[in-house]
Amino acid sequence: VPRGQCSEECLPGFRKSIREGYHPCCYNCAPCSEGEISNHSDSKSCKKCPENEWPNKAKTICIDKVNEYLSYEEDILVLFFSVTSVIFATASLFILGLFVWFWSTPIVRANNRNLSFILLLSLILSFLSVFLFLGRPVDITCMLQQITFGIPFTISASSILAKTIMVFTAFKATRPGSSCRKWVGVQLPNTVMLFCSSIQVMNCILWLSISPPFQEYDMDSYPGKILIQCNE
Question: What positions belong to coiled-coil segments (predicted)?
């Protein structure tokens, strides 16, 4: 029996593509473009999925996009850094405990015990701040991420700088008639640490007041996924 058409039926997931120079009943079956579907045969066009959905493999229905964010349950590298942070935080806490235990001994007192205590405490907070970067971000964690890392890290670096200046000043003060003798003591390193740290604190306050970070849904970077991240 003669057939009255020159093209096969286009299955769902495809659309008709008219051949140039041929009768309209002669067409090719073109697959739907990325992000589009067709759910019936001989579809003349494909329908674009909503922004939060993505076609299935057959491009016949739209399905929800997968939410993507840093999670220690899925990424072995994230788990490694999490465990490493806990190990270093525990080691710092152990050393801090030793400092407290031997608080009144000459060796601890000679090491500027207050500054050493602040240094170890800020290191612990810096190591533990990594956990604010894990899990589904929300507005409050987005704001805390940079603050809980930036301020303790600045205090740590400032404490090390203050200790270095203190040692340098002490060596200079041993020279006869040196003017550095008046700077020897706990006041200079404490002032250096407080000055440097206060700059970082003011920067954080200014940043949060003018342009605070917030939760953001990136639906375009990865096909089929919604990247949940902090807009900073």
Answer: none
